[in-house]
Amino acid sequence: MTNVRMVPLGRVYHNEAMMIRPQRTAASQDAIRKPYRFAGWAGGLRVPFFKGFRPAVALAIMALGCRIASASAANIYIAQNAAGTANGSTCANAYAVAFFNTAANWGSGSTQIGPGTTVHVCGTLTASAGASGYLTFQGSGVSGSPVTLKLEAGAIVQAPYWGANGAIYASGKSYITIDGGTNGLIQATLNGTSGGTCPGGACQYQQGIGEAIYLTGCNTVEIKNLTIGDLYDHTSISDTIDPGLHNPWGIGLWGGDSNITVDNNTIHDVNWAVFVETSSGSPLSNLDFHSNQIYNVSLGIGGGDGSASATITGPVNIYNNVIHDMAKWDANGDVNHHDAVYIWLTNSSSSFTGPYNVYNNQIYNLGTTCSTPIYFDSGASTTYPAASAFNNVIDAGTCGDGAFYDKSGKMHLYNNTILVGTINSQGGSSPVQMLENNISGATEGLLFGSASASASDYNNWYNLNNPAFTYNNTSYSSLAAFHAATGFEAHSIPSTPSLSSSSIPNSGSPVIGTGINLTTICSSQPNPGLGALCYDKAGNARPATGGWDMGAYNGQQSTTTPAPPTSLTATVK
Known about the structure:
Low-confidence stretches: 1-70, 558-563, 566-573
Number of strands: 44
Strand content: 25-35%
Helix content: under 10%
Mean pLDDT: 86
Number of helices: 4
Shape: elongated
Largest sheet: 23 strands, mixed
């Protein structure tokens, strides 16, 4: 009878001399002489056993060996060209970049890319002009074991300009991570305004195409820790490159993507930093954009429906981002009307079901041809969610549409600090707009055309001019006049809020403790999400009872230090 020995990596030796035997003792000698009995089948192998040997243990060992044998590589290293022994074990022995793009190198083999594999990008990878999908994912990870593409310290992926599918591309893939590591960079080197300077020298190309990362139909993806820069260096107001889709994009998500997280990236000198669009039959869902630094762009984070009957399903959370300095993308004819956050739904029968939250962002210096920092855009025959914006600190500067521009009639604004810029609403047939606990330094607090609100109170309005408010196309010269006519703003104050240079209310500020307590709105909500309203922009808890401070930050509480005692004497014993 053939006997089986369990060995590492699932190998099986058919050799009587090599079979496993217990240590021989007098008590066991007789048992060992007895014939082995057949215990059953395990993966097609007949498994014998002897007295004291447990088949269940053998099966477990064999299963472990099979798993080890079928696991993909833990780490694979790639570079521009093959290096050293070219076995992918280190950067010094890296595979050539083509290894990543070859489907035969993806799978469950011990030298293949598969679930749990981290592919390390080493050194500088330089693609040809217009390269498209230069690094293309050929497979997926699984829950808990994504495939990770990680740029090693100092790694750069670059081309003179990128083509339609960009530097990194994935279509229909799941459970993948794109990680910039310490300082990984994706850039174009020669694309920008004619006569301008690009990272590779004088700008030679004026290509309104391409992106650093392009995903379509993907599920459960994280893009993090990258620097994406100089995809197009725009330096002239006469340069009106691609006023349609506003290419190049830093990151493009196009239809059918779900469970996407974009976090802790720096994106600069691109037309649109993060672009999202969907169409009928390719829904978007569960999008999370947070902790990104975005500057020298025309548009920040945004997207919407590209056709009728498109669908977006929340949660969509945009938070903790810093978006600033868009003047480089000013252009003649207002073709680059800058927005920091812009979600639209304008095609017939399209729907966006929430929740949708924009919070804890800092937005400033949006240039001359800016529209608005935060834009909620909805058509008449679409379904748009109640969008909550809170804890944002905004300086809208000269933006023509104010600090917030709403065409859905469903914005909820809580605890924002608006240094400059009105609150502008020009649509919405069902008033569900709520404005509470905001600080606004706009010369015109509200600019409501045909729109109306369901609640507006406990706000701080300062620097008001005449008109101070416009509501349903009627203007009011002061806060008192607006309250008398509408009943709104009964508890609001017109005082200067006394803010620090960091927009934190100073001790003694009139906005401290004079807001309404909104704990009932946020206490049972998820965080990330509306649950974050129970904390200020810095993460400090707001009180469960009593009045809240207005604005994005809790105020500096005054403290009284007790005077030292006097007339004391010391007795030494």
